[in-house]
Amino acid sequence: MSYLSSNQLKQYDDEGFVCPINIFSKEKAKEIRNEIESIENKIPEELEKSGRYNAHLISPLLDEVTHNSKVLDAVESIIGENILVCGTTLFIKNPNEKGFVSYHQDAKYIGLEPHNWVTAWVAITDSNEKNGCMRMWSGSHKDNLKEHDQKFNEGNLLTRGQTVENVPKEKTTPLILEAGQMSLHHPTVVHGSELNKSNDRRIGFVIQSYIGTNVKQVLGKNSVQLARGVDEFNYHKIIDRPQNLLDEKDIKLKKKENDNLQEIFYKGSDKKGKF
Fold it and tell me: Which CATH fold would you assign to the domain 6-265?
């Protein structure tokens, strides 16, 4: 029996996303925020720039989110019972900073084939139109991959500033989430987000992505964690989960995995951004 309802599955099929999905309490979200900010205070550079990737490898609480049974139940409804964690990203928008995400498709640059994977966006703080929540171009996942311009523009939180031009905002849907809720979105749905115009940080923890065990990395190499089921294909190296916060061996592993990600994200580009 599917964890997601028939209406939720229809929304995902028709629109390319589903939300909100309740995962944990606001109190738990606050605990997770505190751990993120503890890392920032102890080792400021650890989560800056490309350090934002794979924080679940150094934080037991973020690892706990990644392997949360409710999250995995929802993911299983979409990609099946055999699930790998391929990576995570922290998207933090501070107030009064010009951080935004241009409209793009994840599958354009992430190198995961076939598209039996899904991205989970978990709200650590409330995410709404004032603080720059995600917006989805409903139904755009049904089209082919679109052309993306590489802008490398100031304030863009994407690696290359990759941008799908002329997205009709009136056809986009804001994904409004309370802390502790999540959305799931399709690899090819066009999405982006605007500035944080609130007085608090907007923090999203993104599992990018949960992949079926039949999915290959065609642009480089990813290590993964087995989240559920069995890995019958063995396309990727399996790595361990963290036991302690900021363990030295885990920090080294995160650095290695993030170096591999840089190779994937900038494949074919003669220029690199700060992420």
Answer: Jelly Rolls (2.60.120)
